[in-house]
Write a structure and sequence with these properties.
Elements lengths: L2 H32 L6 H27 L6 H7 L5 H11 L6 H20 L9 H13 L5 E2 L6 E2 L3 H29 L2 H6 L6
Antiparallel strand pairs: 1-2
Helix pairs in contact: 1-2, 1-7, 2-4, 2-5, 2-7, 5-6
């Protein structure tokens, strides 16, 4: 397979992978918008899990595009990105391109990394598990959102998922994903990955 066909195959596969990532991120946002507070274990897990997977896959799509991997390098490359550490993956992206995240965006990547690498498995240790995914969310919300409302009905202080909180999360997630997507768009244009360009309407015939 010549290099032109290899780039075409890459663009087809990565374009479809972007669809997969988008489905996960959309599912996370849709769930978050339906949450009233952060006291429901299933809701918290669903939101964090789908958001973590979706953003991780966008990061890996971008890494594939910007590294221009040859056929004989692909296995070593895949080993290097076989990680669920969002900050590490972001660091690899920063080594290749110019990208700047706000503190809110960086903290969100840290939150997702901690959830996916530690909290996701810690819940099976039923002797000591204390639903830290709820704490991860509430600490993040209280750090960045002002005028938070709380629910005290269950004899504990639980932040409510108000319109302000939903707007904040939507803005942070949206801008973070947009920065990654703009870099994907720029670099596929540079590489002439026409399948991607046509699929996502970046160019039309």
């Amino acid at each position: 397979m010549d290099r032109g066909n290899e780039l075409l195959k890459e663009s087809v596969v990565m374009a479809n992978e972007l669809d997969v990532a988008g489905e996960f991120i959309y599912a996370a946002i849709d769930k978050f918008n339906k949450m009233n507070n952060f006291d429901q274990v299933g809701d918290n897990f669903f939101f964090l899990y789908h958001l973590a997977v979706g953003i991780e896959r966008v990061q890996k799509i971008l890494l594939v595009i910007i590294n221009d991997v040859e056929r004989d390098e692909i296995e070593d490359f895949l080993e290097k990105i076989k990680s669920h550490n969002h900050m590490m993956l972001h660091g690899k992206i920063k080594e290749k391109v110019n990208i700047s995240f706000s503190k809110e965006q960086n903290d969100l990547l840290n939150l997702l990394s901690e959830f996916y690498n530690a909290e996701r498995y810690a819940r099976f240790n039923f002797f000591s598990y204390n639903f830290k995914d709820r704490d991860l969310l509430t600490e993040y919300v209280q750090k960045y959102c002002k005028n938070i409302s709380f629910d005290y009905s269950l004899c504990k202080k639980t932040p409510l998922n108000t319109d302000e909180v939903k707007e904040f999360f939507g803005r942070v997630i949206g801008r973070l994903c947009q920065k990654y997507y703009k870099l994907c768009k720029f670099h596929v244009i540079v590489k002439n990955s026409f399948e991607w360009l046509i699929k996502y309407g970046i160019m039309t015939l």
